[in-house]
């Protein structure tokens, strides 16, 4: 098998498998799980994973949009890993589960800026 | 608002809103709905929408991976539109709901080739 073929093989994941996947930080702490993720309608590019964090049994938790590039999948853990100390989330952009932000440019910039990333659109 | 801002505003859709969305063809026939979609783990690029079609009340239906670029969203219809006559699906690559193909290069090529598209990876 060529390198290209190897790179592509099994490199896809189903949307409903991403949803619900546990998210850890580099310290191995469980931060929460991915509730859903935001996709650019036209290009099909995933822009944000929405981290569900806090609350108890999913009640009263908050949703935190994370730029997709922050997440890497750890096959050993069976979950996503982000380089994110828990207390960084204290001031992070969030919304209630039943709310959906507009995801306009201003919002996108504020999210990327919060995590020290350049907003690329 | 600049053109760029206008282009980006509201241009994102939540993964769980894509799932379940009705798919029509250009003749206005309801083909089925999107059961889920396949995402490139690394790049976050959506590659296939999986069309659930046939059967009765979701029982006995088949799943058809469609290259994402085939779909366009029609706000009037509130669903996706594909340029696809129903009988094209007769011979199209499909799998049972409980099966998940490997989505390796050979499979990807066969899907793209079936719909007359160039496999870009």
Class of secondary structure makeup of chain A: alpha+beta
CATH architecture grouping of chain A: Roll
Name of the level-1 CATH class of chain A: Mainly Beta
Distinct helical segment count of chain A: 3
| Number of extended strands of chain A | 7
Roughly what fraction of the amino acids of chain A lie in strands? 25-35%
Please give the order of strands in the largest beta sheet of chain A.
5-4-3-2-7-6
Structural domain tally of chain A? 1
> How would a textbook summarize the main sheet of chain A?
6 strands, mixed
Helix content class of chain A: 10-25%
Parts with pLDDT < 50 across at least 5 consecutive residues of chain A: 1-9
- Spatial extent as radius of gyration of chain A: 15 Å
Order of helices and strands of chain A: HEHEEEEEEH
Largest interface: A-B, 37 and 37 residues
Q: State the separation between the terminal residues of chain A, measured CA to CA.
A: 36 Å
Task: Provide mean pLDDT of chain A, rounded.
Answer: 87
What fold name goes in the CATH topology slot of chain A?
Answer: SH3 type barrels
Q: Quaternary state, please? A: homodimer
User: What do we call the CATH homologous superfamily of chain A?
Assistant: PRC-barrel domain
Spatial shape of chain A: globular
